[in-house]
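Duplicate of #3305? Posting structure anyway:
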């Protein structure tokens, strides 16, 4: 009986020591603990703005919000991050996003105007695309896709035309996706690939821009006229998308977004996202 009691007491002591170690770990040891302070920290808790002096992140989770001195005392070994007067907010939620497009954008070139990009003219857009072709080693005949151009935010204050692109890319199929993501501009090689020419009729609910005093396509295709072209574009495989999924997620997190709702999608996209989640991607 004494032997049994001794064993039980030993087990209890071991459990007690284990709990103490667990508590110590929870106070910032070996858990990648970080204390953020020194700025306007807005919790968004409740119906009115609530501010705190410090936030503690541990093991990828927020474990403390409150006073700065209490945070320092409770987590003495934490890594300190002084916000230096900047504002800290909870992660943003994008309620209408197109995350599947973001995955494809990893392999495309940003030609947006500030603040999303830094292109302010058609020539700058073309130069960025030319640099992209050279950096990626894209061969003649292959596709080059840019995204984000806005005719109202570039110096020329007009849409890009097929001929603007042809000057730089006579041997590639090129598409520059409009900032609305409801259309884009194609160069001559891409228009030929899409079977769009002066004999192509206008599409109800869509736009096929024409050159002045002509029925020749200018390059801009929007809305319902664009959908068949977009659907015909070469698409990466699921394995290829999984390989660049992290980069797509970082496009969101680098701008403060930690959650995004797919605004419109296909069953195949949903199947892919389920697979990615199951593989913890």
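Output from current build:
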């Amino acid at each position: 009986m004494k032997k049994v009691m001794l064993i039980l007491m030993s087990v209890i002591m071991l459990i007690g020591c284990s709990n103490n170690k667990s508590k110590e770990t929870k106070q910032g040891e070996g858990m990648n603990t970080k204390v953020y302070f020194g700025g306007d920290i807005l919790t968004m808790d409740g119906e009115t703005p609530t501010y705190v002096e410090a936030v503690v992140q541990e093991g990828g989770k927020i474990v403390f919000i409150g006073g700065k001195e209490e945070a320092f005392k409770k987590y003495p070994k934490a890594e300190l991050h002084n916000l230096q007067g900047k504002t800290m907010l909870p992660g943003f939620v994008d309620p209408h996003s197109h995350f599947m497009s973001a995955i494809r954008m990893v392999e495309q070139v940003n030609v947006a105007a500030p603040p999303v990009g830094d292109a302010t003219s058609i020539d700058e857009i073309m130069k960025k695309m030319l640099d992209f072709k050279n950096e990626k080693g894209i061969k003649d005949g292959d596709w080059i896709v840019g995204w984000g151009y806005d005719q109202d935010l570039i110096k020329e204050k007009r849409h890009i035309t097929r001929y603007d692109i042809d000057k730089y890319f006579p041997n590639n199929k090129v598409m520059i996706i409009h900032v609305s993501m409801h259309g884009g501009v194609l160069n001559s090689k891409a228009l030929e690939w899409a079977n769009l020419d002066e004999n192509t009729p206008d599409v109800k609910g869509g736009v096929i821009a024409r050159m002045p005093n002509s029925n020749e396509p200018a390059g801009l295709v929007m809305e319902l006229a664009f959908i068949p072209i977009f659907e015909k574009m070469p698409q990466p495989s699921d394995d290829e998308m999984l390989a660049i999924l992290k980069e797509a997620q970082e496009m969101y997190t680098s701008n403060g977004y930690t959650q995004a709702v797919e605004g419109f999608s296909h069953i195949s996209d949903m199947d892919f996202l389920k697979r990615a989640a199951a593989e913890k991607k």
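Confirmed duplicate; merging threads. The chain has ten helices and 13 strands. The radius of gyration is 27 Å.
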